[in-house]
Amino acid sequence: MNTVLNNQLVITDQAGRQMWLEVPKTRIVSLAPSSTEIVYALGAENNLYGVTDYCDYPLDARSKPKVSGFSTVDLDLIRESKPDLIIAAAIHLKGLLSDLERIGCPVIVLEANTIEEMIKAIRIIGWCVGKDQAAAGLEISIRSRLCFVSSKVARVKAKDRPRVFYLHESSTWKTFGAKTIGDTLTDIAGGYNVGRDFGDYYPYPTFTDVVKSDPDIIIAETGYLANPQEPLEIARKEPAIAGTKARQTGRIYGVSSDLISRPGPRMVEGIEKLAELFYPEIFNKTATFKGIPSG
């Protein structure tokens, strides 16, 4: 367990790296949108002195100084921000981590592929910025909302769960395989992710693969292209998958990529939205969770 004692924190980050930190940290550079969202969710946004080009939520994050792409970083801009903590991601482990460490401040790596890992990331950032209580409160809220969904879908037998295909990348038809955030969220929301049958992480199924999997539902990730609705339009019109149950029944929906691909606090909103789409007869207008329109 990580414990703060006399402003000293022994931390094990999500790359398994253990270190001593003096806390709280007041000048943070976040190199992942998910970490930026966590900092905001904890009310520590005034501690952010650098973010990535992709840190777009909440709206105020777009006004923070940009020091990075995602896989690429501007080391000079990071140095100029004079951070006392850099929050990196797994993508930075190969090649960039040693460069970041030479800047002269601690670097922690946070990477979540499950709800529990996301909650751990919230705890770690909370400890680092002196927002332990806010982190605990956010965890309680997330777990309460998850419990609501789980209690509803628990009544559904495994054989009755809808088979779901995700159009994660419309140009290649890359999808969520096993060991991904999307696979985790689908399971919690009461669906079966057919992408796990194609392999781990992010496989590239062919149209034939998709047709053979015969999904009941197709979820197209929206919001990240020049035309944010393009993936949904492609999923609805691609002739090669016209014979699938999803196309035959019209159960093709758009869900914001931020909710199902970004491992931050809004993952719970993604689960709620998926559950609503999977089981409209259960999660109707009287449901107490926050629904988000598809598309």
Automatic annotation (TrEMBL):
SUPFAM superfamilies given in the database record: Helical backbone' metal receptor (SSF53807)
InterPro entries in the record: ABC_Transporter_SBP, ABC_transptr_periplasmic_BD, Vit_B12_bind_prot
Keywords of this entry: Signal
Pfam families: Peripla_BP_2 (PF01497)
Statement: the UniProt record of this protein carries the keyword Protease: no
Segments forming domain Fe/B12 periplasmic-binding: 27-282
Family from the record: Belongs to the bacterial solute-binding protein 8 family.
Protein name: ABC-type Fe3+-hydroxamate transport system, periplasmic component
Species whose genome carries this gene: Dehalogenimonas alkenigignens
